What does this fold into?
Amino acid sequence: MLNEQQIQMTRRQKNQFYKTSPQSPLTPEQQDAFDGLTYYDYNPALQLTVKIEPFADGKFVPIQTTTGDVRQYKRYGRFSFTVDGQETELTLYEADYGFFLPFVDAGAGTETYPAGRYLEPEYLGDNRFEIDFNQAYNPYCAYNEGWSCPITPAENRVKDAIRAGEKLPTGEWMGQS
It folds into this structure.
């Protein structure tokens, strides 16, 4: 798990990448006006080591993207955790590149990106995973329509707010004043 200083450093590095890199998800016009991403304060209570209950069938499911494409993900397993005293459950998926945790929380559309945020949990062995919601990030499609991103499945839309990680992108660089 990253500590608060490491989280702050990765956030500064990400802002620099978005502002200056040719590989940034931002358009050149957005990069010119970019003044940084917004984040929740570091929340150590949302740095978790969880035990996943694997699904017996391990089936692949189609997940639609924001541009209408369909990608296949394996439903790996489910885990539960507590947010502000409320029990919450999410499903972890497996992709070609590793594990994938898309989720939409109660702040969607007001505090967080409406289509959800993502994490790539770290596998620790024996169905245990490190899940740090402080590292939750917006998919590239949150910044402009030039990107295709998986849409969070209904089973990962939770009624509680997960106040950690990236917030809804706002500001002039997003075409807002």
